[in-house]
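New here. Invent one.

***
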Amino acid sequence: MLNGILFMGLMPMEIKTGYLYHIKDEYFDVVNDENLMQNPENGKKKPTYFTIKDKKILWFIPISSKIDKYQKIIDRKIEKYGFCNTIIIRKIADKDAAILIQNAFPTLEKYIDHVHTIDGIPFRVPTDLQNEIKSLFKNMLGLKNRGTNLFFADIDKLKEKMLEEIK
């Protein structure tokens, strides 16, 4: 990575909102937050993250294939509150995926391992789904700013740590 550009082969790729990326293990060592979903060990497939670029900070929202697990959580929240907008299940690349907005966290471009590709092409989430995710994320940030924190990680502490690294 050089000047905010991630090199894949010979083609540079600018980090953009709406694409899926993978994060380096180093990030989890640096932030040391037990509430974050960690990268699996022993060479297992790393999770993908929907990315929202916000100036120098990137917001990573985990994507999970564990649909049954998250559907049960969604069902419990709907039963208790009448709705659930912290986890949504939608099609991504023709497969059901749980989008874990409640597990979002801030990071920096230097911690991106690589862009998620399908058949060698960087995968871009469809615009309508991007808009839905961004809207729900923005709503959760608004709730947090008004005193209702639905995020698992301490996003303020993590954002501060990332901003300190930039200085």
